[in-house]
């Protein structure tokens, strides 16, 4: 379900990241190489990017397939950015939300995308809405699982959690309420990329000191691409990538008695991957 990509690094044309590579996000909309669920990502697309000197990103989203939008092709060719998040969508369920359901979702400096599906949606997550203010629920951009997951993440960010904690705790909460859900989340503020690998593929390409790409799958055959293990939190900047194992709330094996087995980062030992 869906493919997405985030980048932080030197200013570069959007096309170099999203349309030019041989297995780009553009091509992944109809021919993904490593997508485990679904085959065509034609239920909408979007990109958010940052302009120099402005912390609030711009967005361009559409309800149709990315290959049918010539305006996007022109935009990608001429616009340069040092940070972006792009996504192509395969809807979990049919709906009438259209462009509003296409990632990236946004608030302030943040851009967010969800690659996956919440099982039992919407009933499985109904209990989690009790913790959200009514105004937040009424302000949801779309009536889809990704929009609600974003609302849960955003609530944590606004109450002071850092990006890693906000994503990890949201994944735990949703995974416990809807076991078997696929929760690859992607978040950026223009300087840092935070992501989870939970039920689907996630890769990164790092050029230390210059830039980092985090994506559902590699956009070319560069041997420097590295796959992120399942049940992992990733935090990346231009200079480094940090991976932290996450604990599945339904897997209680190997957790010491003195630790809280319900927390996704229990027993986690952050490690610096080779780049």
UniProtKB/TrEMBL annotation:
It comes from the Bacteria. Residues 247-275 have a biased composition (Basic and acidic residues). CDD domains: YafJ. It is an enzyme of class 3 (hydrolase). Residues 244-275 are annotated as: Disordered. Gene3D superfamilies: Glutamine Phosphoribosylpyrophosphate, subunit 1, domain 1. The keyword Oxidoreductase does not apply. Its EC number is 3.5.1.118. Pathway: Amino-acid biosynthesis; ergothioneine biosynthesis. InterPro entries: EgtC, EgtC-like, EgtC_Actinobacteria, Gamma-glu_amide_hydrolase, Ntn_hydrolases_N. The keyword Ligase does not apply. Keywords: Glutamine amidotransferase, Hydrolase. It catalyses: gamma-L-glutamyl-hercynylcysteine S-oxide + H2O = S-(hercyn-2-yl)-L-cysteine S-oxide + L-glutamate. Transmembrane segments: none annotated. Catalyzes the hydrolysis of the gamma-glutamyl amide bond of hercynyl-gamma-L-glutamyl-L-cysteine sulfoxide to produce hercynylcysteine sulfoxide, a step in the biosynthesis pathway of ergothioneine. NCBIfam families: ergothioneine biosynthesis protein EgtC. This is Gamma-glutamyl-hercynylcysteine sulfoxide hydrolase.
């Amino acid at each position: 379900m869906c493919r997405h990509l985030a980048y932080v690094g030197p200013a570069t044309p959007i096309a170099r990241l999203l349309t030019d590579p041989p297995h780009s996000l553009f091509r992944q909309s109809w021919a993904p190489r490593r997508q485990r669920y679904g085959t065509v990502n034609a239920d909408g697309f979007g990109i958010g990017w940052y302009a120099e000197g402005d912390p609030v990103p711009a967005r361009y989203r559409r309800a149709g397939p990315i290959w049918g939008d010539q305006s996007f092709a022109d935009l990608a060719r001429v616009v340069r950015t040092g940070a972006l998040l792009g996504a192509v969508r395969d809807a979990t369920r049919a709906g009438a939300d259209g462009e509003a359901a296409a990632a990236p979702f946004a608030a302030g400096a943040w851009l967010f995308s969800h690659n996956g599906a919440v099982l039992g949606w919407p009933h499985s997550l109904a209990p989690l809405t009790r913790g959200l203010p009514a105004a937040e629920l009424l302000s949801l951009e779309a009536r889809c699982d990704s929009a609600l997951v974003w609302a849960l993440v955003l609530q944590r960010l606004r109450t002071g959690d850092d990006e890693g904690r906000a994503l990890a705790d949201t994944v735990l909460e949703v995974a416990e309420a809807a076991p078997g859900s696929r929760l690859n989340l992607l978040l950026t503020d223009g300087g840092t990329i935070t992501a989870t690998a939970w039920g689907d593929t996630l890769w990164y390409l790092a050029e230390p000191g210059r830039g980092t790409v985090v994506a559902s799958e590699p956009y070319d055959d560069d041997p420097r691409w590295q796959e992120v293990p399942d049940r992992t939190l990733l935090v990346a900047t231009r200079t480094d990538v940090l991976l932290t194992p996450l604990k599945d709330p339904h897997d209680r094996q190997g957790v010491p008695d003195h630790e809280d087995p319900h927390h996704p980062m229990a027993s986690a030992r952050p490690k610096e991957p080779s780049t």
